[in-house]
Design a protein that fits this description.
Elements: E1 4-6, E2 30-35, H1 39-49, E3 55-58, E4 74-75, H2 83-90, H3 92-113, E5 123-130, H4 137-149, E6 154-158, H5 159-165, E7 172-181, H6 184-197, E8 201-203, E9 208-213, E10 218-222, E11 225-234, E12 249-259, E13 273-276, E14 283-286, E15 292-299, H7 308-325, E16 333-344, E17 350-353, E18 360-364, H8 370-385, H9 393-396
Parallel strand pairs: 2-3, 2-11, 3-8, 5-13, 11-18
Antiparallel strand pairs: 1-16, 4-7, 5-7, 6-7, 9-10, 10-11, 12-15, 12-16, 13-14, 14-15, 17-18
């Protein structure tokens, strides 16, 4: 299915003479074959090569050309489901632990970025989550108390304090620290360049067709031939996962814009990432060249929108929301796109071993925090592949 349509911003930030060179000949056997060359696949390969494993990545498109090129690059430890809501869902111990895993994953992503051959513009930011309506204030207050109780870096702003810090008025806001923004396209390409230097083999335009599991290996039938591997990771993003059972997820679509560069962003405190309490939510960030990226307006349809007119309509709605928040600032759309977006029914990713196939694994970072999920999931899968115990796998397992 089409994963995005419109005029994407991130690919314009990378020199078209990319240094990733896809291979045509493959080895007789790999320790791990990863299906999917987007953010999840790249992070999984990065994590596995640190263990000395021989890895190949296959993608039916070019690398990073799927959902990852439409990713808006917000890295936060807070999730689509608030901590106090997750506590009600899975219990305090597991919920707090999962939030700590996300917090640690942001740190790991920062460390990864510092090892890469190209700068992915990963910049640490605070996040501001404002109350969309007065009725949401108690929920924000409850979330503040849950985060503060468990030691997360958080502040609560009253209506007056929001007005002191930002050029808009809201009834309350929650401020979390230690998050980050990134150029996801440059990040993935930087990771792929890094792992290619570590002898990871990259195969573009190679579609996986069928998999056979044997006692001591798997055979992956593809459009370019048969790959043999000890393990296979499916990091297929919002494409239909090849698992033979229905998992609890919905594929929707969302929209985003990038503005023309803005000369002076001093009105925006610390260039913080901004989002809100209502669902679906509006979210905002800045870029390294002083653009504003805004996203939202989710729709319950799996395929990316085909109509350029409809994308323009949604883009103008996003621009209208921006202008309400920042009156008096000249804002013009430079790029606008729509893309598929996956969400799990319980707001947690699907990561782990196939319930019935011991050599097949899945790294499906569904949700607005997908890059963070992919980072923490890469470490879970690394341990499972190396037969090391990992209690975190229980929270995100496929058959929960």
């Amino acid at each position: 299915m089409d994963l995005h349509n419109g005029n994407l911003f991130w690919p314009t930030t990378l020199n078209p003479d990319k240094s990733i060179k896809g291979k045509t000949d493959f080895d007789q056997h790999y320790d791990v074959v990863i299906v999917g060359g987007g953010m999840s696949g790249a992070l999984a390969a990065y994590t596995l090569v640190q263990e000395g494993l021989h890895v190949a990545i296959l993608d039916k498109r070019e690398m990073a050309a799927g959902s990852s090129s439409a990713n808006t690059g917000l890295l936060q430890f807070s999730n689509d489901i608030m901590l106090h809501e997750l506590i009600d869902q899975i219990g305090e111990q597991k919920a707090v632990h999962f939030y700590k895993l996300c917090q640690n994953a942001v740190e790991q992503l920062d460390k990864v970025s510092k090892t890469l051959p190209r700068d992915p513009d990963l910049i640490r930011r605070k996040s501001i989550c404002y109350a969309s309506s007065k009725e949401d204030v108690p929920k924000l207050r409850k979330e503040y108390e849950a985060l503060a109780k468990h030691g997360f870096p958080v502040e609560y702003w009253s209506e007056e304090e929001v007005a002191e810090h930002m050029p808009f008025k809201k009834h309350a806001a929650l401020i979390t620290y230690g998050d980050a923004e990134v150029n996801p396209y440059r990040f993935i390409h930087g990771i792929l360049e890094y792992v290619q230097q570590k002898n990871v083999h990259l195969f573009e335009h190679t579609e996986s067709i069928e998999i056979e599991e044997h006692e001591d290996h798997v055979t992956l039938h593809t459009s370019k031939g048969n790959f043999s591997a000890s393990h296979v990771i499916f990091a297929t993003g919002y494409d239909s996962p090849p698992i033979d059972e229905k998992i609890g997820a919905d594929i929707n679509r969302s929209y985003a814009i990038a503005t023309e560069p803005i000369e002076d962003l001093s009105f925006w405190e610390d260039k913080a990432m901004i989002w809100e309490t209502k669902r679906p939510y509006l979210y905002l960030r800045t870029t390294a060249d002083n653009r504003i990226i805004a996203g939202g307006l989710d729709e319950d349809k799996p395929e990316a929108p085909q109509s350029e007119e409809w994308i323009a309509n949604r883009a103008n709605r996003l621009l209208h929301e921006l202008r309400k928040l920042f009156p008096g600032i000249t804002l013009n759309i430079a790029y606008a796109w729509g893309a598929s977006f996956g969400e799990s029914l319980d707001n947690l990713p699907f990561i782990g071993r196939h319930p019935h196939q011991s050599r097949q694994y899945y790294l499906l970072g569904y949700g607005g925090n997908g890059t963070v999920y992919s980072m923490l999931g890469s470490h879970i899968l690394k341990d499972l592949i190396l037969n090391k115990p990992n209690e975190d796998a229980e929270i995100v397992k496929l058959d929960r």
